Amino acid sequence: MLAAIHQPNFFPWLGYFDRMIRADVFVLLDHVQFERRNYQNRCLIRLEDATKWLTVPVVQLSQKERLIDKQVDNPGDLSGSRWWGPVHFQTLRYAYRKAPFFNHYAPRLRELLHARWDRVVDLNIATLEFAREALAIDTPLARSSAMGAQGQKSALLLDVCRRAGATAFLGGMGGSREYLDREAFAAANMGVVWQQFVHPEYVQAGGGDFIKGLSVLDLLFNCGPRGAEIVRGAGAIEHELLAA
Predict the structure, then answer these.
(1) Exposure on the CB side of residue 148, measured as CA atoms within 13 A
(2) Which of 56, 63, 140, 181 gives 154 a disulfide partner, CB atoms 3.0 to 4.6 angstroms apart?
(3) What is the Cα gyration radius of the chain?
(4) Kind plus residue range of the DSSP H or E element containing 204
(5) Mean per-residue pLDDT for 157-181?
(6) What's the CA gap between 236 and 36, in Å, rounded?
(7) What is the pLDDT of residues 70-122, one digit of tens each?
(8) Distance of alpha carbon 160 from alpha carbon 26, whole angstroms
(9) What pLDDT is attached to residue 21?
(10) What is the spatial distance between Cα 17 and Cα 215, in angstroms, rounded to a whole number?
(11) What is the rounded CA–CA span in Å between residue 223 and residue 181?
(12) ∠ CA(179), CA(15), CA(133), 5° rounding?
């Protein structure tokens, strides 16, 4: 069984969902430290042929807060102009006003962004479920906070894989390629597989050069239900042989 592991992010990019599609179980690493200026509370969209961050405001209590404990900084008056959710929805409406499928997803998206979310992790899981449904992804999800997983970096990944009942770890495009303790994985008879993702190109509303790495929303608004097929044709996996 192949396990992929990643923090629950806010409307992630396509590579995130490529790995989810290829895994037998996708573990949401929600008990680790919240990372500032990362993708746990923000995503990239296209606005006027340039990139723009959509950021969920968070309450700053400590630099060591866990993601599962991180609170959304909601205003006291939800009818005012500071409520980030409706503002984000209006930004998306303007940014993708020429995209052919914005209205297809707008009702559900509006429902998500007009709801009050007190914890970042709950918001992020809701956005992931929105995208999973749109992309027809049925890979089971698990949460590290429910597993009692321990360790740091490579040791944590190995422990999560064990607790998930996996026989191999599906690594992504990021830092785990550098810090993975291959000897420890081999000693535990845990296989290692690496994601090989080539970002697909499609017609983005507004013209101009194609911009990679945007939120999954960009694909959905521009391609609609065909986005599921586009993501599935964009990647592969590469097995790594580890000697114990």
Answers:
(1) 1
(2) 181
(3) 18
(4) none
(5) 90
(6) 30
(7) 999 998 776 666 789 999 999 999 999 999 999 999 999 999 999 999 999 99
(8) 11
(9) 96
(10) 11
(11) 40
(12) 130
